[in-house]
Amino acid sequence: MAEGHAGARTAVSWLGARGSRVRWWRALRRTPPAMIGAAVVGAVAIVAAAAPLLAWNNPVAQIAKPLLAPGGPYLAGTDQLGRDELSRLVFGTRVSLYVGVLAVLVALALGGTAGLLAGFYGGWLDNVTMRAMDVLFALPALVLAIAITAVLGPSLTNVMLAIGIVYAPTFARVARGPTLTVAQLPYIEAARAVGVSTPAIMLRHVVPNISAPLLVQTTVSLSTAILTEAALSFLGLGTQPPTPSWGLMLSDARQYMLIDPWIAVLPGCAIAITVLGFNLLGDGLRDLLDPRLRLF
Amino acid sequence: MRYLLRRGLWTVVALLGVSVVIFLLVHFIPGTIVDILGGGEGQLSPEQRTAVMHEFGLDRPLPVQYAYWLGSMARGNFGWSFRSGQPVGQLLVSRLPITIELAVLSVAGVAGVGIPLGILASVSGSLRVKTAVQVIGLLGLSLPNFWIAVLLIIAASYLFHWLPALIYVPPWTQPWVDLQQMFLPVLSLALGLAAVVVRMTRSSMLEVLGQEYVKVAQAKGVTRAGVLLRHALRNALIPIITVLGLQMGYLLGGVVITEQIFGLPGLGWMLLNGVYQRDYPVVQATVMLFALTFIVVNLAVDLAYTYLDPRIRYQ
To answer: Was domain B91-308 assigned CATH 1.10.3720.10?
Structure first.
């Protein structure tokens, strides 16, 4: 478990002193794929934040002839209802990031807490929690997400919740493993001996030491969460019209794609670039913080 | 043997757990079946409502309802579709072959293309091949399969002026037309996953090729192909099988979207239409079947480990 401690130390020092933060940044800079990923993610975040400045037209206003080709007054053309495609793509960035980030936070809150408690207390609580997570794992992710949105009804908030629930078991597993190790370490016993309360031990002494794998999992999950949102919206179970969402735009484009392929190609490009950015960044972070988790 | 028993028992427990999840999910749907069927409040008098609730067994305690549902499923009765009134079991049986065909062809495509390409890439020492494999693997993870499907349709119609027939034809009536229809859906499902398998195969093979016994095999004069296939591949297969098993989850999810895009009336199509029409017996039954498939695949993957590597003996 020597590597485990190394990974945990990296996380602690990263969350701690400024000097080590600089070192961390240098290490990241030496991994070109991770840097490309960080740049893409940064660019996507800027587009989302500056959407009203970048998109000249109202994304839901019907302002021109439908299905205009890219070029001319509308850089990316117009969609089947004569709305500015570029504005819709730009505002779609907000929807994707918003749903993706909040869904992953839901998964982190639910799964991370469950895994932390299971690993810390062990015994029957551990058994019951992890078996319950195994049951959720027994369902294909998208099928479970479809079933949950079917029950909750299609909306932005419900999609977020559904994705959060679907990916919670992964976070539970990622949080439980290191917690098991850390909870056995002498300094936890020492903290208990000097009378630190259990919640304080968990928050102040365990959580910082399991944060490295959780951070990696969070970054990697962002890409799958964005993909799942797009898939659910594509199926009409996610974001509802007229909200500009990439998955929904792609779904609408299906009827017109043989007349005007652009409206089917562009939203897919937007999804692919964003997801690729998060995957590159996640891979890089994993190599950096927790080499044991390497898949390839 | 004891392991098999325990593993089988866990499969049953997992299925029961899934059935509880599905039962509770459907139970939490706002409004009762009566409202959905009766078209909203006010259509039925309170007495009529009570009568209908009683007829469906909805006035009984929750555990009784669950036990009743489970019992009838065990006897092969999946209930009746709210919309068409057909027995859901019959619908499942008619939809299942389409999904099985799609999934089997896709897995065959993924393994058949991904593993050989991965082996070839592991033998090549070229840096370009290495980078290409990594980039392609990453793209496979990042491109949504429904977008690939849409691009394939556009490409087929623009470049080849060809589109597959829209009404599904089963393989036993016109095998050639059926294969034509399956070509694009299978391609859209398999491309991304194959890219990931190429990357996994390459790195797994490289790890094995550095081992002592591979050098021994080479030294005693085993042919190149013999070393690669009989000595290296067999040991490299375990992580590859693991990834293939994990991908079945993505594949089963992807099947739902793919069937919708290409109009193949399989299980995924049935699930989505059940969701759109709020036909809950259909949704319950299809989700159960998806879970069953996934659990059985995972079981098969675990059993494949012991077959591939006799050193693995589960306690």
So the answer is: yes
